[in-house]
Amino acid sequence: MGFAAVAGMTEERWMALQVYDRIEFGLNAGDELDIAATICNEIRESGRPIYIDSVRDAPKWRDHPVPATYGFQSYVSVPLFRMDRSVYGTMFAVDPKPHVIDTPEVRKSIVLLAARLMTFLYPDAI
């Protein structure tokens, strides 16, 4: 995946906290987006991860405005949970090309990585 980030959010705000950008996606740490115009907001509301191998092959996502706006085909995002199970934000990655990411191995790895990340943010939680 060409772009990966950690985002923090509330019901009103979305902010990129850390980014890794190999594709000139154009989002930098500290940048804010309209929370309502993000897939991360859907994750915040549901508490469930989203894995999309190819937007054009995913009926739910092919006409969604967010992939069209940002030009990505592959997307993975998992919620970052606080100890009280509220959503702190998301850890996500996108790429303009399709990638096979919706596999049991990737699902397990990304969820474990998200949990590990939260131990750095909240070290007293372990």
UniProtKB/TrEMBL annotation:
<feature type="domain" description="GAF">
    <location>
        <begin position="34"/>
        <end position="106"/>
    </location>
</feature>
<dbReference type="Pfam" id="PF13185">
    <property type="entry name" value="GAF_2"/>
</dbReference>
<dbReference type="InterPro" id="IPR003018">
    <property type="entry name" value="GAF"/>
</dbReference>
<dbReference type="InterPro" id="IPR029016">
    <property type="entry name" value="GAF-like_dom_sf"/>
</dbReference>
<protein>
    <submittedName>
        <fullName>GAF domain-containing protein</fullName>
    </submittedName>
</protein>
